[in-house]
Design goal:
Number of domains: 1
Helix content: 10-25%
Order of helices and strands: HHEEEEHEHEEEEHEEEEEEEEEHEEEE
Distance between the termini: 31 Å
Shape: globular
Number of strands: 22
Structural class: mainly beta
Number of helices: 6
Radius of gyration: 23 Å
Strand content: over 45%
């Protein structure tokens, strides 16, 4: 039995991803007692994992643009009947500089008043919006229980305590489907932009804001038959940041999966997935009080996911994809929630022939995603892995990639894991 590259409990896969990833393969051949004891010893081995993840999406400079480079270092070791880990993650964020023209610079920080002062030469430009720091976390896992506690990177403008508790279980039924269930409570960083993740400052006014977290819970359930099943989830979260308006999110998901191939060394799974969520307020912009995170009032996506996993000798890989239809609705929103400040902003914007508000939108289009992951056992104690993904599950196209090396203190002589657990940022958003 081989130690698996454990995904950080900070990362929360969607309902469809979780079911496609955990659908079991065909049972392996029986092992001898000596093989069982050896497998237990290997499974109890401590591991050290070092890697780098990169995430990038386009957007306006200094605002929606994002380059996120993270290098998590994780030490994972047995404690009692479970496993614990300690983790340190250097993080570097780059958003570039806010444009100097009035229409663009008025959408950041102090808004039209600050942009007007900039145009008049009274103040300089807001400058580059970047951040860097080191985050830390600890965690413990025992059977279906997962606990974690950490802090967003020291060095960011704002630090937030994050973490969560999750329990997953299953009720066996010899004469029918297995009932799976899960409950989770968490507080997580919202990592869409430098504003929402780290916090930013408008040097024209001296105002700082951002560093948003989502606090709440989620319930999951499923009926798992031999080779197929159904699942659903329901969640609610409160979103809060520093000098950012409060917000709330309601989410739900449901779906069906079926295993077209289920063999010890390869599997093919597909199904149908429905994802629905909505926010109370549209805070997806960058003036003071906004959160800089994707927050539509209605998001509905219906997709057909497909996952193929295979291992050959010391090599294991997985290809996951999904395509479907998604609908997004966002309310119109003013630059500022304060009526006095908004009136001033509107008057100044009108003098430049612009508006101090964002128009609402409602659009329907094609949603897609593709994810590749692979791992190779270089030597009895050494593993090399990597992954890449692309999707448009928000209002932009996003790319992610990562590479890692894992060292196990005990030699790993069993089969490599299948499917490959993706290596990702410990702060990856939902």
């Amino acid at each position: 039995m081989c130690i698996r590259a454990r995904p950080s409990p900070f990362r929360r896969p969607s309902a469809s991803q979780a079911n496609l990833a955990t659908a079991s393969t065909a049972p392996a051949a029986p092992r001898t007692l000596e093989q069982e004891l050896d497998a237990i010893q290997q499974a109890r081995s401590a591991t050290i994992t070092v890697g780098t993840t990169v995430r990038q999406h386009n957007g306006a400079g200094g605002m929606g643009r994002m380059l996120d480079v993270e290098t998590p270092v994780t030490v994972d070791f047995p404690v009692g009947d479970g496993r614990a880990y300690v983790q340190a993650t250097p993080v570097t964020l780059r958003a570039g500089s806010v444009g100097s023209d009035f229409p663009t610079s008025s959408q950041f920080g102090g808004g039209p008043a600050a942009a007007n002062a900039q145009q008049q030469g009274a103040v300089g430009a807001p400058g580059s919006q970047n951040a860097s720091g080191v985050g830390v976390a600890v965690g413990y896992q025992l059977s279906g229980l997962k606990l974690d506690l950490g802090v967003t990177p020291f060095g960011f403008r704002y630090q937030n305590v994050v973490g969560g508790a999750r329990f997953d279980g299953e009720v066996a039924n010899e004469d029918g489907p297995r009932l799976s269930y899960g409950v989770e409570a968490s507080r997580r960083a919202v990592t869409d932009t430098v504003l929402s993740y780290a916090g930013v400052r408008d040097s024209r006014t001296g105002e700082s804001w951002g560093g948003v977290t989502a606090t709440g819970g989620r319930l999951r359930g499923g009926l798992n038959y031999d080779g197929y099943g159904f699942y659903g989830s329901l969640g609610w979260h409160s979103l809060n940041g520093h000098n950012v308006q409060s917000n709330s999110r309601l989410s739900a998901g449901a779906g069906f999966y079926t295993q077209l191939i289920r063999e010890p060394n390869r599997s093919l799974t597909t199904g149908l997935d429905l994802t629905v969520f909505g926010y109370d307020k549209n805070l997806g912009y960058y003036t003071v009080g906004s959160g800089g995170y994707f927050s539509p009032q209605r998001f509905v996506a219906l997709s057909v996911p497909l996952a193929w996993a295979e291992r050959q000798g010391r090599f294991s890989y997985q290809v996951k994809g999904a395509i479907g239809v998604q609908h997004i609705k966002q309310d119109a929103v003013n630059y500022f929630s304060d009526p006095v400040r908004q009136a001033q902003a509107q008057a100044i914007a009108a003098a430049y022939g612009t508006q101090a508000s964002y128009a609402g939108q409602s659009k329907t289009g094609i949603g897609y995603g593709l994810a590749l992951a692979a791992e190779y056992q270089l030597a009895p104690k050494w593993f090399l892995g990597g992954n890449f993904s692309i999707d448009n599950a928000r209002d932009y196209r996003q790319y992610k990639g990562g590479v890692y090396v894992r060292y196990a203190l005990e030699s790993q002589t069993g089969p490599v894991p299948m499917p490959v657990p993706p290596f990702a940022s410990p702060y990856a958003s939902e």
